[in-house]
Automatic annotation (TrEMBL):
This is ABC transporter ATP-binding protein. Signal peptide: none annotated. One of its GO terms (molecular function) is ATP binding. Residues 1-39 are annotated as: Disordered. It holds the Pfam family ABC_tran. Coiled coil: none annotated. It comes from Thalassococcus arenae. Keywords: Amino-acid transport, ATP-binding, Nucleotide-binding, Transport. InterPro entries: AAA+_ATPase, ABC_transporter-like_ATP-bd, BCAA_Transport_ATP-bd_LivF. CDD domains: ABC_TM1139_LivF_branched (cd03224). Belongs to the ABC transporter superfamily. Residues 44-275 form the ABC transporter domain.
Length: 275
């Protein structure tokens, strides 16, 4: 897959590689240089997030993750770095001890996940992200449960994006292949007509070809103006389509930059991309 189609005309928001101490650059407090943040800050930002599960030790330590409208931000890093935890924190599944989450300028830190869905956020977790005993179409209808308008147009868009789902719409989702199930999960999230689509390892367990196809579809979704925030194990491929990449290590930001910058950075390559 080639580079990201958005990078050229949005280059002025892209930030150079930063170290944890330079993290202020990510949230738009950059003090010098040409890059200026969008007025009001990023569309979605989890800023300086610190917290963990229940009464356990903190997993996130001042972690910052952001995505602009219609862009793709990718979180990569070693196993256990806290990538999924950062996603859960942005979605409100974690009580933060410090830090904020802002969507379109509004502080949503105190909102429940359900309230965030109503605000336009959709989250596709890593596992158990479909109803296996329901048909494909029923899964998509479940995605529209918060809507009281006619959602057939949205379902049509999902079928256009993932034609195989139309063919299999009457089949129980549990009978589908891994890649097709992921399409159901993404399709179900899209049924809410989200402004932000959060994906935790959407390509887990699928073949390289299926991964490429899924990434192409994700680019298409971003082109419609939806922001994509995703965690990926396939770091190199994901960074290729990323407007913005974050490398998390031990719950904190180790590197951030455009996908291209991270792919070109010698240390990032050596430490996180297998050379
Ligand atoms: N529900 C939970 N309760 C308590 N601790 C958890 C929970 N989920 C994750 N953790 C812990 O949080 C830390 C970070 O896990 P997390 O799943 O966020 O990492 P990750 O970067 O997504 O890893 P991976 O790449 O392996 O999926 C780990 O030490 C993990 O054991």
């Amino acid at each position: 897959m080639s580079g990201n189609p958005y990078q050229d005309d949005r280059g002025n928001r892209d930030l150079s590689i930063t170290n944890p101490k330079g993290i202020g650059e990510i949230d738009g407090t950059r003090k010098s240089g040409a890059a200026r943040p969008a007025p009001g800050g990023p569309f979605l930002i989890g800023e300086a997030m610190t917290g963990g599960y229940g009464r356990g030790a903190d997993i996130l330590h001042g972690c910052t993750i952001a995505v602009e409208k219609g862009q793709i931000a990718v979180i990569v890093g070693p196993n256990g770095a806290g990538k999924s935890t950062a996603m859960k924190a942005v979605f409100g599944m974690l009580d933060l001890r410090a830090g904020h989450v802002r969507l379109d300028g509004e502080d949503i830190t105190a909102l429940t996940p359900q309230a965030r869905v109503a605000k336009g956020m959709a989250f596709v977790p890593q596992t158990n992200n479909i109803f296996t005993s329901l048909t494909v179409q029923e899964n998509l209808e479940m995605g529209a449960f918060l809507r009281d308008d006619d959602f057939r147009g949205t379902m049509e868009q999902v079928f256009e994006l993932f034609p195989i789902l139309r063919d299999k719409r009457r089949q129980p989702a549990g009978e589908l292949s891994g890649g097709q199930r992921q399409q159901v999960a993404v399709g179900r999230a899209l049924m809410t007509r989200p402004k932000v689509l959060m994906l935790d390892e959407p390509t887990a367990g699928v073949s390289p070809i299926v991964m490429d196809e899924l990434f192409d579809r994700i680019i298409e979704v971003a082109r419609t103006g939806i922001s994509i925030l995703m965690v990926e194990q396939n770091a190199r491929q994901a960074l290729e389509i990323a407007d913005k990449g974050y490398v998390l290590v031990q719950g904190g930001n180790a590197f951030a930059g455009t996908g291209k910058e991270l792919l070109a950075d010698a240390e990032v390559r050596r430490s996180f991309l297998g050379g």
